[in-house]
UniProtKB/TrEMBL annotation, chains A, B:
InterPro entries (UniProt xref): DHFR-like_dom_sf (IPR024072), RibDG_C (IPR002734), Riboflavin_Biosynth_HTPR (IPR050765)
UniProt protein name: Dihydrofolate reductase family protein
Domain Bacterial bifunctional deaminase-reductase C-terminal, residue spans: 8-186
One Pfam family from the record: RibD_C
Length: 214, 214
């Protein structure tokens, strides 16, 4: 089996918005009410950030349970690591993900600005330049035969879609509209030229859109 | 987390039939057209018996992909191992599953008749007596902290349901009726006193019924 590049548990609103224009340390998504995008995931038993027992084991749980299964590395945009822009000002601040980041693999953070790697528990963040294909090649090598997760944010997902490097996508469309913000798509139909699609409504109110290459 | 006992990718007809009354070496399910029960699984990319690349990566694939994820042992009834009844006549015949059984863990085959364990590739079959709880305790120990799959057949699933030992069930209801045979249920409503349920139709025509303990 080849190593797939997979977008997993990526959350957008009904109008395709995944983040606001203005992220900050206090508001990582730059959206008021961003939690409405991902509350479905937090309600499941297998949510990677879950600290208490409990949670649902219905359809939504299959998606959160699958999050780390067969994944050997993640690629993320710089904005998913933190809100800083331009040259790194503060090496002491080690990202939004705390002492126990949920990735538990090598993570390749795309940035034009070098910085030493950071290891936090089972996760090591590497800060890498280069185009999407070059970064994917590094991530594949680090993944030791397993798949690579494309973690986002939305700008990064679009960049890899434009380069035709994405093999599968799971996008959860939440029952909320934001009106403005950074969009993954105007309509998920945009991907039908290159991908099969299934649309699966969940009891939680989100609608799972599943894509895989034609 | 505790170790769950999970029924996974268990296939029944619209009238609840999972197998015929009369299994044989040539007809393991004892049903004409049994392949209509599980053809949805064979069409997915992650079907454990798949030998060729390809297959769908939509909703159904989440279920076949989950088959071995976090599973450390399987329990099965004797009829899932082979069609022999009564004392073992032929130790040379090593079950229906070939040289590369898809389980890849210890498997506990419930039988009143002792027989030495058999190792085939990554799978070891143990032949064990005792009631469901005693067998579950052995399987949990062998699973080393991971979950235990309850593999079937239908009589065995019912036996563990009657003993209230099952934590989650995924039952795929196929668009076929058999009229007669061994039934898992008359209606999946029978489980609602003890389980949450979600019913998720798939593009393939099967309807996934997901249950987890209340």
């Amino acid at each position: 089996m080849s190593q797939l590049l997979r977008v997993m548990n990526f959350n957008v609103s009904q109008d395709g918005v995944a983040a606001g224009e203005h992220q900050s340390l206090e508001n990582p998504f730059g959206l008021d009410g961003a939690e409405r995008l991902f509350s479905w995931a937090g309600a499941t038993a297998s949510w990677p950030m879950r600290t208490e027992p409990g949670g649902s084991r219905g359809l939504d749980d299959y998606f959160t349970r699958d999050y780390s299964h067969g994944i050997g590395a993640e690629i993320m945009g710089r904005n998913k690591f933190g809100p800083q822009r331009g040259p790194w000002q503060d090496h002491d601040w080690q990202g939004w993900w705390g002492d126990e980041p949920p990735f538990r693999t090598p993570v390749f953070v795309m940035t034009h600005h070098e910085r030493p790697s950071i290891t936090l528990s089972d996760t090591t963040f590497h800060f890498v330049g280069g185009d999407p294909l070059a970064v994917l090649e590094r991530a594949r090598e680090a993944a030791r035969g397993m798949d690579v997760r494309l973690g986002g944010g939305v700008t990064t997902v679009r960049e890899f879609l434009d380069a035709d490097l994405v093999d599968t996508l799971h996008v959860a469309v939440a029952p909320v509209e934001f009106g403005t913000g950074l969009r993954l798509w105007d309509s998920s139909d945009e991907l039908l030229d290159r991908f099969h699609r299934e649309v699966v409504p969940s009891a939680s109110g989100v609608v799972h859109h599943l894509f895989w290459r034609r």
